[in-house]
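Late entry, written up from scratch paper. The run itself happened at the end of the previous shift, but nothing got recorded in the book at the time, so transcribing now.
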Amino acid sequence: MLVTRLKLKNWRNFREVDLPLGPRGYVIGANAAGKSNLLDVFRFLRTIAQSEGGGLQKALKERGGLSKLRSLHARREPEVRIEVEVSETVEDDMPLWRYVLAFKAEGKGQQRVLIEEEAVYHEGRKLFSRPLSEDRDDKTRLTQTYLEQIVSNADFRPLAEHFAATTYLHLVPQLLKHSDEISGRIIENDPFGQGLLQRIAKTSAKTREARLKRIQQALVVAVPQFSELHFDQDSITGVPHLRANFKHWRVHGSWQREDQFSDGTLRLIGFLWALQEGDGLLLLEEPELSLNDAIVEHIPLMIDRVLRQRKKGVFSRQVLSTTHSERLVAAVPDADSVILLEPGENGSTVRQPNDQEQCEIEHGLNPAEVLLPKTRPVNIAQMGLFA
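Output as recorded:
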């Protein structure tokens, strides 16, 4: 399944959003336009839908409460609203599922955040719509969604499981390289890739070897002198490691452990592993970081090839990514998959290329040439004037 439409009201940077989505999405915009905040709505739904330790109140608490989540441009409209359509393919005339969630502060007493509306539709048929009469009699019930309740979500559990399967990755190589020294708690859902080696270790040997073989094939092309990639575990401590062989004047080359890999190599390994790990929505933050431009321009192709290989020509996973890279955006094969954020007086607007921009692309310009200039700050030339 994949998310085919996202509607938002008063969510962070955005007063209103109505965005169709396909198997791929590349989110571009100026700094602070709200790229990460747009992706965060899917992390928010994931936290709500998690069967263990999730829920609406936890999702709100992780973001500093409703006051930090509600758009500053909402003015007198107190409600935050999320609406998501999920289909099996983008060609479906009617979504398989539609989920609606709206909430706001109670306005009195404990100032709790209460559900204003929650509804689920399956193939156009409404399964339920809250608040129900029992919710009005006991408003504490409105602090929890049906999405998070196993007893209540039985009729739409595939939707809850799809939300819960979302993966977010913004790999920070230093956390992986120096995990022994840091020896800190891995943040829930491991957004920064600190637990990558542990996740690799927990994967069955056959699946692990198949995935690492694909990654090795890419690294042989992308990393100079690279020849082999292997996984092993310390026989005494059980700590997992990746080892890579680099060819040079020695007959058998030189073996290095992950703490000796370059930042770019580690980010590429984490990126390629994440593509193969799971079938839910994958959210990527600036996958181009630390990578050579020649590699960056192949990221859209790598995403498509890795996921197409797994399911006989059918894309097996939806991927949404933020990016600032001209090379990456230029290589996007379908301009409709570029999502442009434009800040304004009433918050950021979200859109796909308009007819004029599509015409320019059809006449020979690439998406980066047409769209990235619209993300430049208006007075950027003045930056060089500061003492």
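The chain has a mean pLDDT of 89.
(Scratch paper discarded after transcription.)
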